[in-house]
Design brief:
The chain is mainly α. The protein is 75% helix and 0% strand. It has 8 helices and no strands. Helix 3 packs across helix 6 and helix 5 runs antiparallel to helix 8. The C terminus is likely disordered.
Protein backbone atom coordinates (compact mmCIF):
# COMPACT_ATOMS: atom_id res chain seq x y z
CA UNK A 1 0.00 0.00 0.00
CA UNK A 2 1.12 3.54 -0.62
CA UNK A 3 2.04 5.78 2.30
CA UNK A 4 -1.16 7.82 1.87
CA UNK A 5 -3.41 4.77 1.83
CA UNK A 6 -1.58 3.33 4.85
CA UNK A 7 -1.98 6.62 6.74
CA UNK A 8 -5.71 6.76 5.99
CA UNK A 9 -6.12 3.07 6.93
CA UNK A 10 -4.31 3.63 10.26
CA UNK A 11 -6.34 6.79 10.98
CA UNK A 12 -9.66 5.01 10.30
CA UNK A 13 -8.65 1.81 12.08
CA UNK A 14 -7.71 3.69 15.24
CA UNK A 15 -11.24 5.14 15.33
CA UNK A 16 -12.82 1.76 14.60
CA UNK A 17 -11.54 0.67 18.03
CA UNK A 18 -14.20 2.97 19.50
CA UNK A 19 -17.05 0.62 20.38
CA UNK A 20 -19.58 3.24 19.28
CA UNK A 21 -18.54 2.50 15.69
CA UNK A 22 -19.55 -1.11 16.29
CA UNK A 23 -22.87 -0.26 17.89
CA UNK A 24 -24.00 2.22 15.25
CA UNK A 25 -23.33 0.02 12.21
CA UNK A 26 -26.29 -2.36 12.63
CA UNK A 27 -28.57 0.68 12.91
CA UNK A 28 -27.88 1.42 9.24
CA UNK A 29 -29.98 -1.60 8.36
CA UNK A 30 -33.08 0.43 9.28
CA UNK A 31 -32.60 3.20 6.68
CA UNK A 32 -31.35 0.55 4.23
CA UNK A 33 -34.59 -1.38 4.66
CA UNK A 34 -36.62 1.83 4.37
CA UNK A 35 -34.80 3.01 1.23
CA UNK A 36 -35.18 -0.43 -0.32
CA UNK A 37 -38.87 -0.59 0.56
CA UNK A 38 -39.36 2.84 -1.04
CA UNK A 39 -37.25 1.66 -4.02
CA UNK A 40 -34.90 4.60 -3.61
CA UNK A 41 -31.58 3.77 -5.25
CA UNK A 42 -30.17 7.07 -3.93
CA UNK A 43 -31.22 6.14 -0.38
CA UNK A 44 -29.63 2.72 -0.70
CA UNK A 45 -26.35 4.15 -2.01
CA UNK A 46 -26.19 6.89 0.63
CA UNK A 47 -26.87 4.36 3.40
CA UNK A 48 -24.21 1.95 2.11
CA UNK A 49 -21.65 4.78 1.91
CA UNK A 50 -22.56 5.82 5.47
CA UNK A 51 -22.24 2.20 6.60
CA UNK A 52 -18.83 1.84 4.96
CA UNK A 53 -17.45 5.06 6.45
CA UNK A 54 -19.03 4.88 9.92
CA UNK A 55 -16.04 3.05 11.35
CA UNK A 56 -14.14 6.36 11.26
CA UNK A 57 -16.82 8.71 12.60
CA UNK A 58 -15.89 8.46 16.26
CA UNK A 59 -12.77 9.62 18.11
CA UNK A 60 -9.96 7.28 19.03
CA UNK A 61 -10.94 5.74 22.37
CA UNK A 62 -8.92 6.56 25.47
CA UNK A 63 -8.75 2.85 26.31
CA UNK A 64 -9.55 -0.23 24.25
CA UNK A 65 -11.15 -3.29 25.81
CA UNK A 66 -8.69 -6.21 25.41
CA UNK A 67 -11.36 -8.43 23.81
CA UNK A 68 -12.21 -5.68 21.33
CA UNK A 69 -8.51 -5.24 20.53
CA UNK A 70 -8.20 -9.00 20.03
CA UNK A 71 -11.14 -9.13 17.60
CA UNK A 72 -9.92 -6.07 15.70
CA UNK A 73 -6.45 -7.59 15.39
CA UNK A 74 -8.10 -10.68 13.87
CA UNK A 75 -10.25 -8.53 11.58
CA UNK A 76 -7.26 -6.46 10.43
CA UNK A 77 -5.22 -9.59 9.72
CA UNK A 78 -8.19 -11.01 7.82
CA UNK A 79 -8.39 -7.93 5.61
CA UNK A 80 -4.67 -7.45 5.03
CA UNK A 81 -3.59 -11.12 4.87
CA UNK A 82 -3.58 -13.48 1.91
CA UNK A 83 -6.79 -14.02 -0.07
CA UNK A 84 -7.24 -17.68 -1.04
CA UNK A 85 -10.38 -18.69 -2.95
CA UNK A 86 -12.27 -19.84 0.16
CA UNK A 87 -11.71 -16.51 1.88
CA UNK A 88 -12.91 -14.64 -1.20
CA UNK A 89 -16.09 -16.73 -1.30
CA UNK A 90 -16.80 -16.16 2.40
CA UNK A 91 -16.17 -12.42 2.03
CA UNK A 92 -18.50 -12.25 -0.97
CA UNK A 93 -21.29 -13.28 1.39
CA UNK A 94 -21.33 -9.69 2.71
CA UNK A 95 -22.49 -7.98 -0.51
CA UNK A 96 -24.67 -10.97 -1.41
CA UNK A 97 -26.48 -10.84 1.95
CA UNK A 98 -26.84 -7.05 1.79
CA UNK A 99 -28.26 -7.38 -1.73
CA UNK A 100 -30.67 -10.05 -0.51
CA UNK A 101 -31.70 -7.78 2.38
CA UNK A 102 -32.35 -4.89 -0.03
CA UNK A 103 -34.16 -7.17 -2.49
CA UNK A 104 -36.48 -8.49 0.21
CA UNK A 105 -37.60 -4.99 1.13
CA UNK A 106 -37.60 -3.83 -2.51
CA UNK A 107 -40.14 -6.59 -3.16
CA UNK A 108 -41.91 -5.42 0.02
CA UNK A 109 -41.50 -8.66 1.90
CA UNK A 110 -40.86 -7.68 5.50
CA UNK A 111 -40.86 -11.36 6.51
CA UNK A 112 -38.12 -12.20 3.98
CA UNK A 113 -36.18 -9.14 5.16
CA UNK A 114 -36.39 -10.36 8.75
CA UNK A 115 -35.14 -13.81 7.71
CA UNK A 116 -32.20 -12.28 5.81
CA UNK A 117 -31.44 -10.02 8.81
CA UNK A 118 -31.34 -13.05 11.11
CA UNK A 119 -29.09 -14.85 8.62
CA UNK A 120 -26.74 -11.84 8.48
CA UNK A 121 -26.48 -11.84 12.29
CA UNK A 122 -25.83 -15.58 12.49
CA UNK A 123 -23.19 -15.49 9.75
CA UNK A 124 -21.41 -12.47 11.28
CA UNK A 125 -21.25 -13.94 14.77
CA UNK A 126 -20.30 -17.39 13.46
CA UNK A 127 -17.53 -15.91 11.33
CA UNK A 128 -16.13 -13.97 14.28
CA UNK A 129 -16.31 -16.92 16.65
CA UNK A 130 -15.16 -19.68 14.27
CA UNK A 131 -12.65 -17.88 12.04
CA UNK A 132 -11.71 -15.41 14.74
CA UNK A 133 -10.89 -18.08 17.29
CA UNK A 134 -13.67 -16.91 19.57
CA UNK A 135 -12.85 -13.20 19.33
CA UNK A 136 -16.20 -12.51 17.63
CA UNK A 137 -17.87 -12.56 21.02
CA UNK A 138 -15.91 -9.42 21.97
CA UNK A 139 -18.70 -6.94 21.29
CA UNK A 140 -21.32 -9.01 23.11
CA UNK A 141 -19.13 -9.67 26.13
CA UNK A 142 -17.95 -6.08 26.21
CA UNK A 143 -21.55 -4.78 26.23
CA UNK A 144 -22.52 -7.32 28.87
CA UNK A 145 -19.60 -6.29 31.11
CA UNK A 146 -20.53 -2.61 30.75
CA UNK A 147 -24.18 -3.33 31.63
CA UNK A 148 -23.16 -5.48 34.59
CA UNK A 149 -20.73 -2.85 35.88
CA UNK A 150 -23.32 -0.09 35.40
CA UNK A 151 -25.88 -2.19 37.30
CA UNK A 152 -23.47 -2.67 40.19
CA UNK A 153 -22.79 1.07 40.32
CA UNK A 154 -26.49 1.94 40.30
CA UNK A 155 -27.39 -0.71 42.89
Amino acid sequence: MSATVTAIWDWAWARHQNELSWYVRPLFLLPLAWASYRRSVTGIVVTLVALATSMAWFPVPAAVDPQVASFLAFEQEYLTGSWPAGKILVTLLVPVMLAAFCAAFWWRSVAAGAVVLALIAVVKVTWGVVDGGGTGAAAWWSRRRHRTAAGRMAG
